[in-house]
Amino acid sequence: MQTIYEKPKTLIDTSTHFCPGCGHGIVLRLIAEIIDAWGIRGKTIGLAPVGCAVLAYNYLDIDMCEAAHGRPPAVATGIKRVHPDNIVFAYQGDGDLAAIGTAEIIHAANRGENITFIFVNNAVYGMTNGQMAPTTLPGQRTATTPAGRDSANYGYPIRICELLAVLDGTSYIERVSLSSPENIRKTKKALEKGFTTQLEKKGFSLIEILSPCPIYWRMDANESMKYIDEDMTRIFPLGVVKDWTQKN
Amino acid sequence: MLTGNAAAAWGVRLANVDYIPAFPVTPQTEIIETLSKWINDGVMDAKFVTMDSEHSMITAAGAASATGARVFTATSSQGLVYGFEMLYTIAGWRVPLVMINVSRGLSSPITLEPDHNDILATRDTGFIQIHCEVCQEVMDSILIAYRLAEDERILLPVLVNMDGFHLSFTREPVELPIIEQVRKFLPAYKPNHAFFKASQPMAQGVAVLGGYAYSYFKYQMHLASKKAIEVYREVSEEFAELFGRTYNTVETYMADDAECLLIMTNSFTTMGKAAIERARARNIKAGLLRLRLVRPFPEADIIRFVKRAKAVAVLDQNISIGKGGIIYSDVASTLYNEKEKPVLLSFISGLGGKNISIEEFEFIFDSLVKAVDKGEISPPQLLYTEAELIEINRLKNIVGKEKHYKFESGD
Ligand SMILES: Cc1ncc(C[n+]2csc(CCOP(=O)(O)OP(=O)(O)O)c2C)c(N)n1
Ligand code: SF4
Ligand SMILES: [Mg+2]
Do the bridges between strand A124-125 and strand A131-132 make them parallel or antiparallel, or are there none, so unpaired? Predict the structure, then answer.
């Protein structure tokens, strides 16, 4: 008999703390699959954020470091600058990266840090019970916008990919989603490209992943996938925003 | 029945605040969520906006306060220290911001449960600090806080503190006051000191060059804070007359004839009071003193009670690494120049929400009795129970660290 599918070795055999239908588990699995396939378990260092993925080190069997809320880009910089031959990635939520950590991601991008950033955008602060994040969609109901986000008072969703793409320090930026098996395969490709960018020493890469948070979107898992396709992608269009391989 | 967080939100609602910048952090978030819901439902008239971090949140709060608005904000732990820079700045502006901190141990290691290293890290900023034991006190303290902060003799911001989980998420009966009485106690804020009116240009937050001017401003803040003790007494008397609840700078429990006195702060004091009753049942003349006002430090009131005792223990739920208990140091320096003073023992427990067990309290009182009867002074110590040490050793086994601690009572 031939094994055609198995749990990645990099994924620790444990039960998950994520809610049913959450996207974080999918992203962590994709990372584990790539690490296994590329045989880079011994040289990869991951940064866990403060957010629902805070326990990422309980799932990925690699060197990991936990960073304070919003600080993964600085921690990753410190690590990568003294260990340039290691593969360093930072895993961040939209609160972590696009609210309290905005300044740090902009400057990591501007310095062209040769690091891969995995940006899981679920349009809320999941861990603290679903308050509005800067990425929350207009009209979206959250714990701090019970009537829906009113942009006149609470501002507009921040498009991190487009914002960072204008900086000369960035090399590869793409937005993907987890809304279907096909999109998950594209997400994996994008992650591979992010790691390739780093291995080729091409500098800053960021993959934004639109990810479901059924609990705080007040939906079931299926509705969440539909919400990504029909509502989220209207504000956050999928696709490559910047790609060093396509420069002439 | 209200949680500590809901009681805090009620205090803010009753205080009729104008503006609330917010940012979520456990275990404080229920406060801002409750306020945002009330504002959305139209039962509260205030401006609410979520900011990108506590640094901006505290900054915006202070800035709005400097324009003459009544402002509130809330945070906890990592959030408080993330906005730390601005605490000094805002206190220096001498503006009457009232803020709540819901205590939670500081990272790292990461924890969600309470101790007081977060709030005590801010003790030198210039913020007045009121620490609460029960939910009712949280609500009442917010009203008192605005009175203090807005008093022309003080003009310093105030931090009200409560323990995360143990108070923030515990439901207790809370009596809501009649709104007319609240208005009488806390009328609308009329700023004479810091405000923006187009007709009277004012430069705020300016620089001073030269240490002499800088020293002058710092000393003014210090004097204002010291003065706050007297003003606090006035205000709390007025509060007691109107609402029937008395809040002295320190609260005492069976302290009048106590030979062995225990000093604590915040919600674990309730366990301390139960321990006093158990000690009394063992014929120990035990009593307790809880600090409500922590900045300014109510030295005269502490001296008054402490001097009556023969031995005093300070139970700190914080640790100044390399020195020891922070409240212990403050109490010790308060007593140093007194001619007659009791022995003063230092204990630390309850870090990161660790329970303070019956055995630990017993150990403290046994140590106090030993100090009184035999003159044996125990050194400062961090308390653990035997079961907790066994668990630590089990965890050390898992990670392959062989060296174990042996349990000696009160180690
Ligand atoms: C300085 C500081 N402020 C606030 C918090 C509280 N906090 C923890 S997680 C979080 C938001 C996480 O949201 P996000 O990054 O989007 O991750 P998600 O849980 O949605 O995956 C916040 C505000 C904190 N830990 N530290
Ligand atoms: S709250 Fe949302 S992001 Fe967090 S684990 Fe649950 S579904 Fe996932
Ligand atoms: Mg999020």
Answer: antiparallel
Whether the predicted pLDDT of B406 surpasses 70: no
* Residue extents of the structural domains in chain B: 4-243, 250-385
Give the ligand 1 atom nearest the CA of B25: 6
Other CB atoms within a 10 A radius of the CB of residue B395 amount to 10
Q: What would the two tokens of residue B10 be? A: 């009620």
Q: Is the CB of A134 under 6 A from ligand 2?
A: no
How is domain B250-385 classified at the CATH fold level?
Rossmann fold (3.40.50)
CA of A94 to the centre of ligand 1 (A): 9
Higher pLDDT, A236 or B202: A236
Tens digits of residue pLDDT in B288-301: 999 999 999 999 99
Contact (CB<8Å) A143/B40: no
- Give Cα B124 to chain centroid, integer Å: 13
Contact between B139 and B11 under an 8 Å Cβ cutoff? The reply is yes
Q: Among A132, A205, A154, which Cα is nearest to A175's? A: A205
Helix (H, G, I), strand (E, B) or coil at A183: helix
Find the radius of gyration of the CA atoms of chain A: 17
Residue B213 alpha carbon to ligand 2 centre in Å: 53
Mean per-residue pLDDT of chain A: 97
Q: Are strands A44-48 and B19-22 parallel, antiparallel or unpaired?
A: unpaired
Residue B30: CB atoms within 10 A of its CB come to 22
User: CB neighbours of A30 closer than 8 A, spacing ≥ 6?
Assistant: A184, A187, A188, A191
pLDDT confidence band for A148 (50 / 70 / 90)? very high
Task: Considering the domain delimited by B4-243, tell me its CATH architecture.
Answer: 3-Layer(aba) Sandwich (3.40)
* Cα dihedral sign, B83-B87-B89-B94: positive
Residue with token string 């401003």: B217
Q: Are B4-243 and B250-385 the same fold in CATH?
A: yes
| B22–A144 C-beta distance less than 8 A | yes
Ligand 2 atom at minimum distance from A20 CA: 7
pLDDT tens digits for range B155-174: 999 999 999 999 999 999 99
pLDDT for position A235: 98
Distance A175 CA to ligand 2 centre (A): 20
Domains of chain A listed by start with CATH number = 37-246 (3.40.50.970)
Q: Under an 8 A CB cutoff, do B37 and A146 touch?
A: yes
User: What does the angle CA B242 – CA B47 – CA B81 come to, to the nearest 5 degrees?
Assistant: 85
Q: Tell me what the pLDDT averaged over chain B comes to.
A: 95
Distance of alpha carbon B134 from its chain centroid, rounded?
12
Residue of B29, B41, B54 with shortest CB distance to A129: B29
pLDDT at A30: 98
What kind and span of H or E run contains B397? helix B386-398
Type of residue numbered A181: P
Which tens digit of pLDDT belongs to each residue from B321-360?
999 999 999 999 999 999 999 999 999 999 999 999 999 9
